[in-house]
Design goal:
Layout: E1 2-7, E2 16-23, E3 29-34, H1 38-55, E4 61-68, H2 72-86, E5 113-118, H3 122-126, E6 135-139, H4 149-162, E7 169-173, E8 194-197, H5 203-219, E9 227-232, H6 235-239, H7 241-245, E10 253-256, H8 258-265, H9 277-289, E11 293-295, H10 305-318, E12 323-325, H11 329-338, H12 342-360, E13 366-368, E14 371-373, H13 375-390, H14 396-404
Parallel strand pairs: 3-4, 5-6, 5-12, 6-7, 7-8, 8-9, 9-10, 10-11
Antiparallel strand pairs: 1-2, 2-4, 13-14
Helix pairs in contact: 1-2, 2-4, 10-11, 12-13
Amino acid sequence: MQQSTAGNKGKGVRSDCFITLELTKNEKIEISITSKVKALFGKQIEKEVLDILSFFNVKGAKVTVEDSGATALVIAARMEACIKKLIKTDKEYLLPFLPQNQYHTEKERHRFSRLYLPGNTPSLAINAGIHHPDGVILDLEDAVAPDKKFEAQFLVRNMLRGIDFYGAERMVRINQIPRGIEDLDFIIPHNVNLILVPKCENREQIILLNEEIEKRKKRFNITSTIWLMPIIESAAGVMNAYDIAKAAPNIVAMAIGLEDYTADLGVKRTLEGKESLFARSTLVNACHAVRIQPIDSVFSDVADMEALKQNVLASKALGFSGMGCIHPRQIKVIKENFAPDKDEIERAKKIVNAFLVAKKKGLGVVSLGTKMIDAPVVKRAEKIIQLAIEMGKIDQDWQNEFAES
């Protein structure tokens, strides 16, 4: 008997389904559906299953669907995983691409908050965009059990195509290199914006990954840049941070994963973070040396917002420009406290004003009080002003003046 399963079921499972597929020798399709909404959507679920079986030319099968409110893209992913566990085929059952998902992102984009979403749990991804994180991370690595990684690939592919993330940067954390190479076929052709590279320890991993990315971009005629964010999670990775940061021009940020890093050291991760200060400072310096964004680790206590705020402020003081989050309620605190505060904005306004005055006078030198202001300082001040405008922290009159300049 050839049988396979895919999906999730049980207490607390939402927006998913559990499918059992048995191939039979007689050319007959039998479908059994268990669902609280069977009266309303049973026929639709049955049609979706039949369409997928027909697409893969499956003529004899028994299919059991235990539905917990799955959408079409979830049912399609679960069915395709079941079929491909039993039948070798290169065909892909692709649902239409949402028009609003066909955007690309810029290197200098703000990445204050990135919301981790387990790649095999559709309920958490469906409405993730309404919380307005700067990025969403569909995770194929640690958040997915080893025996679920194969089916998670199909779900992540379908989520990239069919879930509206409301402009958030669409990121995927692949598995550790070299296993992560297998994930590329499920994300490169489906408009992933950025790939997180876990447990990165040397530049050779980045070079190998980019070679594989370029092969697929050529095969699928993709011209947009796919950004990379290596994650440093070991002592070896910390010591090689600078070489990793400058390994490729499509690296836009580098993150640190403190759970694995402290485990590698054999120490306990603490709220004060003394045990990781060297690693975090090393990563920050490596990133700023090559002009990419340093991203801090996640804060695991999702209930303590004040502790999160203090953690963000300490992170910002070290030079980080963002951090990961594991719950939507963390997004607002992270964004507000990584954003420029009142003093930063006022100083930036003075610097930009001094630059505008010097420009109008035709002066080649910009000064503020007794201090000379060089081009990088002005550029940073302009970025702070632009960000403050985007976040509604500067009044309209000053916005107009800045825009006219």
